Amino acid sequence: MKLYPESSLWSEIAYLAYHLHWDLQTLLDLEHADRARLIELVADMNQRAWDALADA
Q1: Which of 2, 28, 29, 30 could serve as 35's disulfide partner, Cβ 3.0–4.6 Å?
Q2: Distance in angstroms (rounded) separating the CA atoms of residues 40 and 34
């Protein structure tokens, strides 16, 4: 079984905790694919927000 790098896991958790304000246990309980999808969605929302500011 291949383990996911601990530093990557903590980076993902910190990113989601910062943006979603979810508790640590909730984030740790996520499956990798779910966590990756949430990161993608949050990053997309952030990019759209920055793009809107740039267009203003």
Answers
A1: 30
A2: 10
Q: pLDDT digits over 30-47, tens only? A: 999 999 999 999 999 999
Chain segment 10-26, per-residue pLDDT in tens = 999 999 999 999 999 99
What is the rounded CA–CA span in Å between residue 35 and residue 31?
Answer: 6
d(CA 47, CA 33): 21
What pTM, to 2 d.p., does this model score?
A: 0.83
Distance of CA 23 to the CA centre of its chain: 13
